């Protein structure tokens, strides 16, 4: 029997991925910022999460996990290739990230995007109770709001885009542009990470569809669709608790010892994605070693690169480039038993990540473009000891809030090197001052506050 909920989240991925091992089917946490942010929100609202389970073929039956009802949506192998790897991650993802890689446009991908979006809309329509709130997430599902409104006009529909929304000139390249825009306008409230993105959207509605707007509200067939900025965040209290855990602290010490107790541990943690600027960061580290401004073993770098979208060409090419650069740095500057860069192409538990954050003197977050970047916020929240320093790209959404980071332009190699050196050599008092201000900001702007502000604007009563 289908369980109907008054609060439904629809996202491409469920918070867990299905994996098949020798012991049969198992579930493990799925990657990415969306899941990190939404998991605590849904646990509080006790709703249903509609999403893909990460496998192909028939979907598993709906099940409950930590108070959340999970409703899997199936994808065939062909849809995985065309909807997920193609239209979502080779067309829309690069286009919305300033085209830092060239977007690929294919007709057959667009058809699959429509079909799969319709399937998600139908699944949401099935599990939503009369008058429910449905909150649709991210670029993979931009057609869902309008499709869902068509099926269920009684629902209150919100949409949140986790990634940047491009300027008009870039958006206009997309063959599916009018359909995507109409899809989003099916929502009552469309949320973005940044004010500028919301402005791009409102202007686009006039430019492309000739729609009238008043402030941030677009008038569509007599309906009012609001647009706004709602910068996403993390569960700050949970991160602080985890980082303060004596086991995590002991593990952090052990990590430093395993690295040879260097003076400076520089850390990067990202999905292996070309938007994250991993190559440029490595290059900056290499040039500082070559210039003699840093040296091994006093300084070592740890780069965690979580496997991501591994069958998409752009990602395969990136992996080759990153691994070549790591090899080059270690070849030139490493010694027997002392590599300059420790490269880890693996997933970790949240507590291991917290230990890595606590072990790092300098955290480098240098995306060429990023909607927000939760790793930057996790690092700051984990350093309640007020140690550590954050180097942060101006092109990450997080830079609007974390102004006391060592900000840099990732397109300027000298700027990145300079920010890294300043972070390495900052005096302790100044580093603490910066960390404290950022931590105060995060405590007042955690993921609970993000969800409340979006849902209040949508007119949803607070969860008790
Ligand atoms: P994106 O959403 O583009 O992946 P974010 O920085 O916003 O980028 O979010 C990434 C999330 O994934 C963070 O919560 C981070 O802790 C988590 N994460 C990153 N790398 C790993 C890893 N190797 N193992 C487990 N979690 C990871
Ligand atoms: O917001 C960024 C995002 O694309 C999420 O939608 C997604 O869950 C996460 O990154 C990880 O990507 P993927 O689901 O393609 O592995």
From TrEMBL:
<dbReference type="InterPro" id="IPR001830">
    <property type="entry name" value="Glyco_trans_20"/>
</dbReference>
<protein>
    <submittedName>
        <fullName>Trehalose-6-phosphate synthase</fullName>
    </submittedName>
</protein>
<dbReference type="Pfam" id="PF00982">
    <property type="entry name" value="Glyco_transf_20"/>
</dbReference>
<comment type="similarity">
    <text>Belongs to the glycosyltransferase 20 family.</text>
</comment>
